[in-house]
Request: fold
Amino acid sequence: MRRAAAALAGLLCVAISATMLTAPGRAARGDDTPVVFAAASLTEVLPRIDATARYSFGGSNQLAQQIRQGAPADVFLSASPKYTQGLYREGLVRKPVPFATNTLVVIVPRSNPAGIRTIADLARRPGLRLVVAGPQVPVGLYTRKVLQRLGLLSILRRAVSQEQDVKGVVAKVALGEADAGFVYATDARAAASRVRTVAIPARAQPRVLYEAAVVAGSRHVDAAQAFLIELLSAAGRRELRASGFGVP
Reply:
């Protein structure tokens, strides 16, 4: 426990500037409310960690581009280090820190009309309607890694749409507009009443790592830092675990 606490403290020192906070969480923010740009897969869990922040959820690639264009964000939470690290190299965010992990699954409608039982069935069902996220969306990048490792990249030809974020994939499958889709396990869990889950072999699982960073141009730096502390706190980590995320 002491080692874990020391590691967490080290991450905070990297993530937070030399400005010292008198108290963590909402009490340190005063009247400021941080604007948090966050990956769509965090839609359910973040308001349980902090109900007072203002959230903008979407594909991490799109949110990163908005930050490049000067959107008024204070914190950026990405479902892939590709986008936080890219902004860091450009000087647009402070040092990113990892805060969560995830896994991929295949989802099918509850009625499962295509009879999908294993991921191999995706290549065996004629007329299969597959939905995936676009190639620049983190879940879309991870999906392509899975298919490459399993030698199933050719099934992308069956994709009836390429969504802008993971929630778009969930919606298409839940509404029966597709026979199967690739999503995060946490999103499948949140939609369990509408979809069924098909496991992906462990050997094909990509490393899904979420990172958070304070935006360099934030006008609410103290509030942004306080949000990050809350996210990385023991309470924040409990909420992430309760929603099905792993914590580094």
Residues 71 and 77 are 14 Å apart (CA to CA). Confidence is low (pLDDT under 50) at residues 1-30. The domain at 104-204 is CATH 3.40.190.10 (D-Maltodextrin-Binding Protein; domain 2). The chain has two domains: 2-101+209-242, 104-204.
